[in-house]
Amino acid sequence: MPTYDQLAIGDSAAFSKTVSETDVYLFAGITGDMNPAHVNAVAAAGNMFKQRIAHGMLTGSFISTVLAMHLPGPGTIYLSQELQFRAPVFIGDTITARVELIEKLEPRKWTKFKTQVHNQDGKLVVDGTATVIPPAA
To answer: In whole angstroms, how large is the CA radius of gyration of the chain?
Structure first.
């Protein structure tokens, strides 16, 4: 796991996952977000997407996986996240969350990352930025 001084602008990492029905139901249970758009196939058939969609925050949470487990890695402290939901994620989609270091913030030794999630077709589904404190050592 790189420290602040070892990180370079342009460093990047990614994590991919196929979103399952179980993932959606577990997330709904943990958060209490039982919106029919996520958990009710009959109701969701009448929505603008014509089928259930994964929670936006479930999709966004895979950015946390990249930051905490890959770059900068274990020990990273998440300070902020900006998210824009660009397209739906459906059950069965394989998504890839990617982060890229875009700024080193002196004197606090914080870092700013471009954060994006794409689906299996390369479509941007989540766009944003995150500020984190990388591990000290």
So the answer is: 16
